[in-house]
Amino acid sequence: MANINVQDYRKADYAIDDMFLQRWSPRAFSDEEIDEETLMSVLEAARWAPSGSNKQPWHFVIARNQEDRERFQSFIMDGNRVWCDKAPAYVLILSDREAGGSHAFDAGTAWGFLSLQAMKKGLITHAMGGFHKDQAREELGIPEKYDVHAVIAIGYQDEMEKLDEQLQEREKPSDRRKLADSLTEGTFKE
């Protein structure tokens, strides 16, 4: 939908597959529903993420009907609600602390796989940390052994002009700092 040229905002320092540059987190969601096969394909990709000792500590709570979406919207903060209410699906990502030390790392990897598969299926995703975790835990009946990480809005992209003006200004792919700024060799250096 959006006429944004990602190459105007993102350039890799080294050769990588274009999908890594093409994936970004728009806020302009269409309310078009996602068919079962497509949504399950996105979650299937997340299932195949690597995990420490193959413990697969992730758990996904999905909301794709009106009642469930409203339940999720009750704990999403207002700053995110202004753009995510139209999204036809949400996924709450959890990880089982009892699976060991890499549970959160593994759940994050599953989110990465989910986001790339969604892009391959013509969908957009936007992860949100701006939600009330305790309220989500209570509202959805999540046991204490699970860490609550992020709510992911999933859907089809709409025209950015449908967003509030201040959100339109932010509706573009973000760049990344140089690899050299995140990398040291041999020992840690800031």
Summarize the model shown.
The chain has 190 residues and is an alpha+beta fold. Helix content is 34%, strand content 15%.
Describe this structure in words.
By secondary structure, the protein is α+β, with helices and mostly antiparallel strands. The protein has a single domain (27-171), classed as NADH Oxidase (3-Layer(aba) Sandwich), CATH 3.40.109. Helix content is 34%, strand content 15%. The protein contains 7 helices and 4 strands, in the order ααβααβαβαβα. The protein has helices spanning 18-22, 36-47, 66-73, 78-84, 103-120, 133-140, 165-170, and strands spanning 58-63, 89-96, 124-128, 146-155. A 4-stranded antiparallel β-sheet has the order 1-2-4-3, with helices on both faces. Helix 2 (36-47) runs antiparallel to helix 5 (103-120). The chain is globular. It starts with 17 loop residues before the first helix and ends in a 20-residue tail after the last helix. The relative contact order is 0.23. Pfam families: Nitroreductase (PF00881). Residues 164-180 have a biased composition (Basic and acidic residues).
